[in-house]
Amino acid sequence: MSEMAAEQITADGRRIGPVVMEMKNITLRFGGVVAIQDISFDIREGEIRAIIGPNGAGKSSMLNVISGFYVPSEGEVWYKGARRPAMKPYMVARQGIARTFQNIALFEGMSVLDNVMTGRLTRMNSSMWSQALWKGRAEAEEVANREIAEKVIDFLEIQHIRKTPVARLPYGLKKRVELARALAAEPTILLLDEPMAGMNVEEKEDMSRFILDVNDEFGTTIALIEHDMGVVMDLSDRVVVMDYGKKIGDGTPDEVRNNQAVIDAYLGVAHD
Amino acid sequence: MIYREAGDFSTTYQQDSQTFPIRFDRYRYYAILAVAFLLVPFFINDYWANAILLPFLIYAIAAIGLNILVGYCGQVSLGTGGFMAVGAYACYKLMTSFPDVNIFFHVILAGFVTAGVGVIFGLPSLRIKGFYLAVATLAAQFFLVWMFNKFGWFYNYSASGQINAPERSVFGIVVTGPNTHAWATYLFCLVFCVGAALIARNLTRGTMGRTWMAIRDMDIAAEIIGVNPLKAKMTAFAVSSFFVGVAGALFFSVYLGAVEVTEAFGIQKSFIVLFMIIIGGMGSIFGSFAGAAFIVLLPVFLKNVLVGGFGWATDVAAHLELMILGGLIITFLILEPHGLAAFWKTIKEKLRLWPFPH
């Protein structure tokens, strides 16, 4: 376990902690289709870990395995030094793993504030009786969690749309609200599924800044999937490259960039 | 001008999340409460109580209950009539088995019994959604009505198969049975109605309401952020059935006095309460009241206009009433699909700026 305790310092001087999550020989099958084949990698505390790969490589499936949405057919997920048994997604969320979705999965009928507050649901456990009377624990809890939600709202600069119904917001802001909801849970690991999909350059810059700030200020470990190579290489500390369900590369952005298998996967290779 | 919120600031989160954050709304609410509790009881007569106020209050409670399930948690139910019957029969059995206990507690206990039954019939909601769930709850409706007809124990083996509310009183004032006063029954129902509205509002503005709405809007995302779908749906069924059961108990004991289950709690009840929340507004406590008022008041109003105003024959008027009511509902839903609550909201937004909209 000496490796786990080791603290790494990256090229630009960022401190990366011990391993917090480790995927061991994960295989995921849907009937005859093998979505993920024998993949192992780890996520270290405080790092930004990217998973990249061409379309259909199995990235989203991987994220779904981490967030407990899929149970791997083979292999083990280790979290905080213990093997994670198969559990329902809501239990995984309670262990401190939050995520956003590729196609925004906000609660459209609720206001931005209520959406962010749902991120706090796992921390709120006043009884139904107390809530029915809006007295005692329920009220105190509401206020305490509202303060945290408001901090996240401030942090992501969405104060002005706090009370707006989510359905009325433009795409870019919805993405930010979704990030706010995930952040409100104060997760140990934050999973981002294509946080910049469908954004213009300016919005991408904003989002990149928020991701870096989150990682910096709260020390949140982040695992993300992204297609924009420039963004990935700039943001992440380490990158896993997947292709056809297999891992073809793992390392710092520079190492990955010069990896022949990765270059072949992205640029194609002549078959003769 | 009419509707002013300038200079009305919230300085704490408590103030911001209260039921009526705008002072004007708050005062209007107190005024309505004062009129309802202090003024109406002095002017009420039997006609007003039996034709308008009692059904309005009782249906409002049922609509609040159904709105929690359908409007807030997104689980469609067509079993409201059956659950009201559970409340009524539970209340009857309690009243006859424990005559010394106050009727007030019987009504509440009847609500808890219904909550338990609602949870049992809500279990299918874990696997099925939408129309299919509606069909499953429809089965509950028919099963419950059949059960109350089939087993004599429920109606104490009375020859007629009916249940009759014995005379019971609260603080020495008779509220059930044949010798009641209009003001007493009215106040009794009003207390339950206001209580139901307050509890429903408190539940829906806090943690529980957000859990329900998360399940309604996107159940997969709800689960990913840590909502236990089993718990969320079962609490919604329990709370919803509780209110529906209380409504059923009041409907039987205070309003009708004698009930034959197929007639009083048939499938039509389920539809009427569902119409109320569709017309009033899904996911809104105010909408439940508005919808109940619409469905209860409109026939009375039409009857007064057609028979009283135009002097038409009663049977002609009765048929026309149904046609006009149906036509109005359709017109209304086309013009404002989100119900009276949304309509009211639009008016409020306009009034905020009136008379200087720019």
From TrEMBL, chain A:
ABC transporter domain span: 21-269
InterPro entries recorded: AAA+_ATPase, ABC_AA/LPS_Transport, ABC_transporter-like_ATP-bd, BCA_ABC_TP_C, P-loop_NTPase
Keyword list, A-Z: ATP-binding, Nucleotide-binding, Transport
Keyword Nucleotide-binding: yes
Acetylation listed as a keyword: no
One of the record's GO molecular function terms: ATP binding
Organism superkingdom: Bacteria
Matches recorded under SUPFAM superfamilies: P-loop containing nucleoside triphosphate hydrolases (SSF52540)
Pfam families with a match to the protein in the record: ABC_tran, BCA_ABC_TP_C
CDD domains according to UniProt: ABC_Mj1267_LivG_branched
Protein's name according to its UniProt entry: ABC transporter ATP-binding protein
Source species: Arenibacterium halophilum
Organism ancestry: Bacteria, Pseudomonadati, Pseudomonadota, Alphaproteobacteria, Rhodobacterales
UniProtKB/TrEMBL annotation, chain B:
Subcellular location: Cell membrane
Signal peptide start and end residues: none
Lineage: superkingdom: Bacteria
Membrane topology category: Multi-pass membrane protein
Entry annotated with the keyword Repressor: no
Keywords linked to the UniProt accession: Cell membrane, Membrane, Transmembrane, Transmembrane helix
Transmembrane segments annotated in the record for this chain: 27-44, 50-69, 76-95, 101-123, 130-148, 183-200, 236-259, 271-302, 322-344
Matches recorded under InterPro entries: ABC_transp_permease, LivM-like
Name of the protein in its database record: Branched-chain amino acid ABC transporter permease
Organism whose genome encodes this protein: Arenibacterium halophilum
